[in-house]
Specification:
By secondary structure, the protein is α+β, with helices and mostly antiparallel strands. It has one domain (14-241): 2,3-Dihydroxybiphenyl 1,2-Dioxygenase, domain 1. The protein has helices at 8-14, 30-41, 94-98, 146-157, 208-213, and strands spanning 18-27, 44-47, 53-56, 67-71, 82-87, 102-105, 113-116, 122-126, 135-143, 160-164, 167-171, 180-185, 196-202, 216-219, 228-231, 237-241. The strands form two sheets. An eight-stranded mixed beta sheet has the order 2-3-4-1-13-16-15-14, with helices on one face. The two termini are 25 Å apart.
Length: 244
């Protein structure tokens, strides 16, 4: 027997306001950068509209582990406010260096590599120490108020917030593809656009609930059905597609 469809009113109490739907990385050479991230993720590379590319999840990976790479023509953002943490397939990053990556810092007092993709986007890479699969396991956002940011996003996505020292982590959010969304406190304010940001799908046709909660509109949709570009309370950009 099929389940009855949720009414619009009931859905507001059952469904979270947004669903996580992957990442977007801005690049001068979207094809080359996407090809590098295909190696990192073990996924499938395919072309998108308007010169963009995307890496879809590999076998056994979460369905929302999507990395879109889009072209830019103006100045690139600094990219240092948001980064990814990944597990390597082995003890070192030789395969990622061969794919065009660069070692920025080797393990020392901190037991992970800092690597950069072919356009200099940095990420942390942890040597394999057990049988957990390689790939992304954490999205990291630097912010002024880690607890407030984590609670804001948990309030939209679901999940719970845990403290890790001065940092705050969102865990077990429905549709979030990785183990943790870490908000890491830093003293400086955001001073430019992030090259890496995330996509969400709205529960509704427009983002009035997010705006009421503290989001701001950076750019309205360019066409019917296109995504809004919004910013969270600390100015981190994200794309919000209307409900289908």
């Amino acid at each position: 027997m099929s389940r009855p469809a949720l009414t619009a009113e009931l859905s507001r109490y059952v469904l979270p306001p947004v669903h996580f739907d992957g990442l977007l990385l801005q690049a001068r050479d979207p094809r080359g950068v996407a090809a590098f991230w295909r190696v990192v993720l073990g996924g499938t590379l395919r072309e998108r509209d308007a010169g963009g590319w995307r890496v879809d999840p590999g076998p056994g990976r979460p369905v929302n582990e999507i990395v879109r790479v889009g072209p830019v023509t103006g100045p690139l953002g600094r990219g240092s406010r948001v980064h990814l943490d990944v597990r390597l397939a082995g003890a070192g990053p030789d395969d990622l260096v061969a794919a065009g990556g660069r070692v920025v810092r080797r393990p020392g007092a901190e037991p992970w590599y800092v690597l950069a993709d072919p356009e200099g986007n940095e990420f942390c890479a942890y040597p394999a120490v057990d049988d957990r699969p390689p790939g992304i396991f954490e999205l990291v956002v630097k912010c002024r108020d880690a607890v407030a940011q984590a609670r804001w996003w948990a309030g939209l996505l679901g999940g719970d917030v845990a403290l890790e020292g001065e940092a705050a982590v969102v865990r077990a959010a429905p549709d979030f593809p990785w183990e943790y969304w870490l908000f890491d406190p830093v003293p400086e304010a955001k001073d430019g656009p992030n090259r890496l940001h995330w996509h969400v799908t709205l529960r509704d046709r427009e983002p009035s609930e997010l705006i009421a909660r503290g989001a701001t509109v950076r750019r309205p949709p360019a066409a019917e059905g296109a995504a809004w570009v919004l910013a969270d309370p600390e100015g981190n950009e994200f794309c919000a597609a209307p409900a289908g």
